[in-house]
Amino acid sequence: MLRTREGEVVMNVSVMQENLARGLQTVSRAVSSRATLPVLANVLLKTQDAGLKLTATNLEIGISSWVPGKVEGEGEITVPAKLITDLVASLPNQRIDLELSVKDRTLKLTCGGSRASIKGIEADEFPVVAVIGEAPTTAIPSRTLREALTEVVFAAASDESRPILTGVLTRFVGETVTLAAADNYRIAVRTLAVARPVATELTIVVPARSYAELVRILPDSDDPIEVTVTPNRSQALFHVEGTDLVSRLIEGQFPNYEPVVPKRDAWTARAVVDRETFLAGTRRASIFARDSANIVKVEVGGDGSEGAGIAITAHAADVGDNADSLEAAVEGSPTTIAFNARYLIDVLANLGSDEAALELSGPLAPGVIRGVGKDDYVHVIMPVRTAS
User: Fold this and answer.
1) CA of 126: how far to CAs of 22, 40, 42, 88, 332, in Å?
2) 191 vs 230, which has greater pLDDT?
3) Which H or E run includes 315?
4) How far is 239 from 276, CA to CA, in rounded Å?
């Protein structure tokens, strides 16, 4: 209940600057950058559970964070997210007293000798962010989930013409969850173990943008992250200690990607190379490839002689050429293939392995990249057809 002081509704709460700044930084990721409603550019502050609950939403995702504090008067208000985030970040690491006078919708902040007043919008105008009361569907170790999402999310499509491809297929089966993302040119698939088996098989498609924000929130620890899916499969909630992320889910049937993924031993040429070296060589080639449709050629095995590794080349008629020779452990027949440099860079920059294995089955067959020692991840890149 809200407390009344001399006929005026008042919120009064004290928190530490460091905690409030961290909470605001977390939820501000969900603030709409192109808000159709003024209130969507705001963050909701509400006294709750012996502290302050912060919430922001862009109607696709909602993020809530709890800040511990001392509550003397209950209440809620929305204020411009960027303004309060920048203000709190600039304050010294001391106690901040927040007091709201609903009469004029003004939030007053006091920290040491600094005082500020922020005009707000009534909390009633803020969209309702779902609170999922269902029991958690499963739990996944935070560090494992963060690594898996990092290896998959970037492969989702950014083109909204096929909404289903802007999401990440998430399939829970028994003690595992499989994450898959694809556009028309690449596929990334990662399987990981859950900390709590699911009772029944469940498949959902989570917007890649939602997962990208979750990665930023997940702590680098083995603490389990609770995942809850609503019975109608319209929303999913990810609970991290002190923070909730609620995301809408994408409706539709995710394409069957499995026939496109080559079998593990289907390659005719395979090269194992240091991931960082491969990444650096591809980035250099991409500088020249900018003027040639971003195409780079990768030659595995060269002339087939002993010790031949990987050659990465790029050619731009009006600019020049670039070539990098990389040491690699090569098996199979010499093969040359062309890729879009950006797709190679994306997977090599996000692969959680020190060494990468490039597996080829011909110049026009999909190329496969795996992490050496990682049986739970595969990345497929479609080749580019070139004149020579």
Assistant:
1) 22, 7, 8, 22, 61
2) 191
3) strand 310-316
4) 34
- Give the architecture (CATH level 2) of 262-381: Roll (3.10)
- Residue 43, CB half-sphere, CA atoms under 13 Å: how many? 29
Structure tokens at 326: 């990389």
Whole-prediction pTM:
0.91
CATH homologous superfamily of 138-258 equals DNA Polymerase III, subunit A, domain 2 (3.10.150.10)
Which value, to the nearest 10 degrees, does the dihedral of the CA atoms of residues 254, 158, 191, 282 take? 140
The number of angstroms, rounded, from the C-alpha of 146 to the middle of its chain's C-alpha atoms is: 8
340 and 185 Cβ atoms separated by less than 8 Å: yes
The per-residue pLDDT for range 104-129, each reduced to its tens digit, is 889 999 999 999 999 999 999 999 88
What is 3-125's CATH number? 3.10.150.10
Report the alpha-carbon distance of residue 277 to residue 341 in Å, rounded. Answer: 15
**pLDDT tens, residue by residue, 327-346:** 999 999 999 999 999 999 99
